[in-house]
Specification:
With 223 residues, the chain is an alpha/beta fold. The protein is built from nine helices and eight strands. Strands 7-6-5-4-3-2-1-8 form an eight-stranded parallel sheet. The radius of gyration is 17 Å and the shape is globular.
């Protein structure tokens, strides 16, 4: 077994069975992804459209590709035919574009709404109030080509795990409220994507069922 494959298996073994593992492979070569694939990994997360499309051409066809970065609306068309999940839908405009491209490809593209709870202003997403207001307006219900399946967030970039825990707890509470208010009859609205290499145990403790882990599996990124 290769080192990357072993690290993927060790990481998967540490997670509860109900928590999905997205192997964050951005900036790593296709050869590294193949090593994780050979060990059993089938879900990879990329953050650049061009890089994702290039890797998809080189790797097995049964991979579920997740787009985890900031997605520009004009790039959606390139991944709309095949992307398994868009993690970071941060504006109504982007959601509308995803729906448009989904319909053009005869599919409803699974996606998550990104919530901004971190201290850094550089991070994208709806504030909790903005999210509630957006969902209350109800226009999203007419978007047939986009399938909202949960929420995603990134915690503050800090070593203060109490701060991180507070943010994850907030998103978990928000998910529960949104689920009850807007998606109570929709079983597929069930995903809570938060937690990375350094904070995933805190995330899982506070309700995450999808973690995005890269460094623990692939090592430092190759920019």
């Amino acid at each position: 077994m290769n080192e990357i494959g072993l690290r993927w298996q060790e990481t998967r073994a540490q997670l509860p069975q109900n928590v999905q593992l997205v192997a964050v492979s951005k900036f790593h070569p296709a050869e590294s992804l193949q090593k994780a694939y050979d060990a059993g990994c089938r879900v990879f997360g990329e953050s650049r459209v061009q890089e994702l499309c290039a890797k998809r051409e080189l790797l097995p066809t049964d991979i579920a590709w997740h787009f985890i970065g900031h997605l520009q609306p004009n790039k959606v068309k390139y991944i709309a035919p095949f992307v398994s999940l868009v993690h970071a839908v941060d504006t109504p405009k982007l959601l509308a574009e995803i729906s448009k491209r989904g319909e053009q490809n005869d599919r409803s593209i699974p996606c998550l709404l990104q919530v901004h709870v971190a201290r850094e202003e550089t991070k994208f997403g709806f504030s909790p109030d903005e999210l509630t207001d957006f969902l209350s307006l109800g226009a999203w219900r007419e978007l047939r080509g986009a399938d909202i399946q949960g929420l995603m967030c990134m915690a503050s970039n800090t070593d203060d795990m109490e701060q991180v825990a507070t943010e994850f707890k907030l998103v978990c509470q928000l998910f529960n409220n949104v689920k009850q208010s807007f998606f109570s009859d929709k079983d597929t609205f069930c995903l809570r994507s938060y937690g990375m290499s350094h904070d995933w145990p805190v995330a899982v403790k506070h309700g995450s069922n999808m973690v995005r882990i890269g460094t623990r599996i692939f090592g430092e990124r190759e920019y």
